[in-house]
Specification:
By secondary structure, the chain is α/β, with parallel strands linked by helices. The protein is built from ten helices and nine strands. It is elongated, with a radius of gyration of 19 Å.
Length: 222
């Protein structure tokens, strides 16, 4: 079971704790959170333990707390000091002149989103199709029929996706590759509340299927 965001947000004081953590880019000492929230030590500890039980917060070092995943909460509370990361898909070349992730990255740049890391799930055959482009992506490869199996695609995606969610403001792009891969990535975006885009290569337009504003509405953040 993933983080229970909606339940975490039901209590205003828990929201204050999360807001404080986001203010400090996802990690803060107990004393810093106490100062930001103006919650007494015992009451603050109660809400921190509640958020730990809901899979929202972790505490690896005594007296220091961190968000388990910076996405989506650092989006929702506007913590823009956290760097961006992109996770997309790449299909066979066919008639396309430009890789769809490249179009997406250019359009994201227009919205002042410049990913520090770029990961792309694809097949070895698609990588071969695009080898003349010298793409500088981090590849997540699906072999054989994995690219047409939703569950197999998600197994390939999840370890890297969860690692990115811990450290970055993640944007996922479900434009390219096979239909099962698109469904797999969009399903993960819904499950983990990740901003998700779809790009029209021909029109050079970008549509937010899941936006940061939409996430705020879903979480009940004013």
């Amino acid at each position: 079971m993933g983080p229970r965001y909606e339940e975490a947000m039901k209590l205003e004081k828990s929201q204050k704790v999360i807001h404080s953590l986001c203010k400090h880019s996802g990690i803060a000492k107990f004393s810093m959170i106490e100062k930001d929230t103006e919650l007494g030590g015992g009451l603050l500890l109660h809400h921190l333990n509640r958020l730990i039980s809901l899979g929202i917060v972790e505490s690896d070092v005594k007296g220091t707390y961190r968000l388990k995943y910076r996405t989506p909460l650092c989006y929702a509370f506007g913590a823009r000091k956290v760097p961006f990361a992109y996770l997309g898909l790449l299909g066979r070349r066919d008639s396309y002149k430009t890789p769809e992730p490249e179009v997406a990255l250019n359009l994201l740049s227009n919205e002042k989103i410049e990913p520090y890391l770029v990961y792309v799930l694809t097949s070895p055959e698609a990588v071969s199709d695009w080898k003349t482009e010298k793409l500088r992506y981090q590849w997540i490869l699906c072999y054989g029929d994995e690219i047409i199996e939703i569950d197999e695609v998600q197994k390939r995606l999840l370890p890297q996706l969860e690692a990115l969610l811990r450290e970055y403001l993640v944007v996922v792009d479900c434009t390219s590759s096979t239909k099962p891969a698109t469904i797999a990535l969009y399903d993960l975006a819904q499950r983990y509340l990740i901003p998700c885009i779809y790009v029209s290569v021909e029109k050079k337009t970008l549509k937010w299927l899941i936006s940061s504003d939409g996430i705020r509405v879903r979480l009940g953040i004013e």
